[in-house]
Design a protein that fits this description.
about 260 residues, alpha/beta
C-alpha cells in the first residue's frame, strides 16, 4: 500500500447498512461511513428514529437511505435485506450495532421476557443479519462486517449477566463467521466499547460507583460515540485487508486491570 494513502479511507461506491443508527454509536458510525463516501442505509425499529439522521447526512452531501427494522424479528430482517438487494443490488458493509439491555440488576431477579428480548436483539438478530449479508457480499466480490460488542464480553460487571452473555456470544459469532467465510472475501471483526456516554448506557454512566471507577481508568473519562468511529472505518477499509476475526477493544484502558 502506498504510504501516502494511509490517511485516506475512500468508501465511494460501497453500500453500508448500519442497524441501530438512530443515535449514539450507530449514528456516529453511519456519519463516519457517509463522510468517507459510502451509500449508507440506516435502520431502526422506526423510520422516524433514523429519518432526521439521514436528512442531516444528506444536507452535508452524503448518501443516506432509511429502513424500518426491528433487529430481533426475523421477518423484518428478511424484508430489510430484500429491500437492499432490490434497490442497490449489493451490500459491502454491515455494522451490527442494534442492542438492548432491558434489565440492569441482580441476575437471579431477571424476568424471563427480559432474557428473551436481550437474546433476540443482541444475539439472534446479528446472527441472521450476517446470514443474509454474507451471500450478498459474496455475490459482489466480498465485504466487511463489524459487530459492536462490549468489554462486558471479557470482564464481568454486576447487574449485566445476560447482556454480557450476549456480547460474549457476539464475539464468538464474529470469529466463527470470519473463519467460515474469509475465503469467500468476507471479513468479520468486532469492536468492544467500554463505557460510552449514550442514552442507551445512561443508567450505567450515572451510577456513582461506575463514575468513581471511570475516574481511575488510564483514560479517565467515559467514551463518546465519536471515539468508536475511526476503529470501525479502519476495519471496513482496505487498510484492514489482512484483519479478520479480531476484537478491537476501545475502552480507555478499562480491561487492563
Amino acid at each position: 500500500m502506498n504510504p501516502s494513502t494511509m490517511n485516506q479511507i475512500d468508501l465511494s461506491g460501497k453500500v453500508a447498512l448500519v442497524n441501530g443508527a438512530s443515535r449514539g454509536i450507530g449514528e456516529a458510525i453511519a456519519r463516519g461511513l457517509a463522510g468517507c463516501g459510502a451509500q449508507v442505509v440506516l435502520s431502526s425499529r422506526s423510520i422516524d428514529g433514523v429519518a432526521p439522521v439521514a436528512e442531516s447526512i444528506r444536507s452535508e452531501g452524503g448518501l443516506a437511505a432509511v429502513r424500518a427494522c426491528h433487529a430481533g424479528r426475523l421477518d423484518e430482517i428478511d424484508a430489510l435485506f430484500d429491500s437492499i438487494d432490490q434497490e442497490f443490488g449489493r451490500l459491502d458493509i454491515l455494522i451490527n450495532n442494534a442492542a438492548t439491555n432491558p434489565w440492569y440488576g441482580p441476575a437471579i431477579e431477571l424476568p424471563p421476557d427480559a432474557f428473551d428480548k436481550t437474546v433476540d436483539v443482541n444475539l439472534k438478530g446479528p446472527y441472521f443479519m450476517m446470514s443474509r449479508a454474507v451471500p450478498l457480499m459474496i455475490r459482489g466480490g466480498g465485504g466487511s462486517i463489524v459487530n459492536v460488542a462490549s468489554i462486558v464480553a471479557l470482564v464481568s460487571m454486576a447487574g449485566q449477566a445476560v447482556y454480557a452473555m450476549t456480547k460474549a456470544g457476539l464475539v464468538s459469532l464474529t470469529r466463527s463467521f470470519a473463519k467460515e467465510y474469509g475465503q469467500h472475501g468476507v471479513r468479520v471483526n468486532a469492536i468492544l466499547p467500554g463505557v460510552v456516554e449514550t442514552r442507551f448506557a445512561s443508567a450505567l454512566v450515572e451510577d456513582p460507583g461506575v463514575q468513581k471507577w471511570i475516574s481511575r481508568l488510564p483514560v479517565p473519562r467515559a467514551g463518546q460515540p465519536a471515539d468508536m468511529v475511526a476503529g470501525v472505518l479502519f476495519l471496513v477499509s482496505e487498510h484492514a485487508a489482512f484483519t479478520t476475526g479480531a476484537s478491537l477493544v476501545m475502552d480507555g484502558g478499562a480491561t487492563l486491570g
